[in-house]
Amino acid sequence: MNLEYIFPTPVWSIDFNLDLEKIKSFVLLEKEKYSSRSLSNVGGWQSSDYTTKDLPDILFGKFFHRAQKHLQECFYTYGVPQKPIIDNIWFNINSQSNYNKSHFHAGCLLSACFYIQSDENSGNILFERSSQEDFIISSMFGISQSKLAASKWRYSPTPNRLIIFPAWINHSVEENNSNLERISMAFNIKGEHV
Fold first, then answer.
1. Where are the beta strands (DSSP E) in 51-146?
2. How far apart (Å, rounded) are the C-alpha atoms in residues 75 and 70?
3. pLDDT tens, 1-22?
4. Which residues contact 162 (CB under 8 A, 6 or more apart)?
5. How many CB atoms lie within 10 A of CB 180?
């Protein structure tokens, strides 16, 4: 019997070794300076958009340089003959009971989330199938623990870990059940013809 997977959903993760305390201090100072915008977040603070040029190179330069190499590998995996460009960047701080509603990121190919501060109870990122797939699969199989048949799949927020995923996949962030604020940096990636 021959088995092929069609329409797979890749989720990449890369572990870094950055000084997260300095990055956290930067984000907390930004929170003091600027009000929160409200998009998918319920409670918590979300910054406005930044570009890589807006952020201090001494804190973020090595991160984005290394991330760019991994993003190129992601594009190769998809067969996209373009150069990945980091489009918009924002920061999130979710305190206890804060969460993010289900959403997707239109207008880009990939999205990413880098965890600056979190623990096992501060809220997983939750990826969801489309409502049609979810209805059919869950009505036939119930709740599945298999990545192939699951309606939803969770990843724990791990400090110094970057998660990259297709921007069109519905995702949410579960409620923070910890006393520790979950702090993350998210960004979107577009392609540029070379």
1. 82-94, 99-103, 110-117, 125-128
2. 9
3. 999 988 888 999 999 999 999 9
4. 13, 14, 15, 16, 67, 70, 112, 113, 114
5. 13
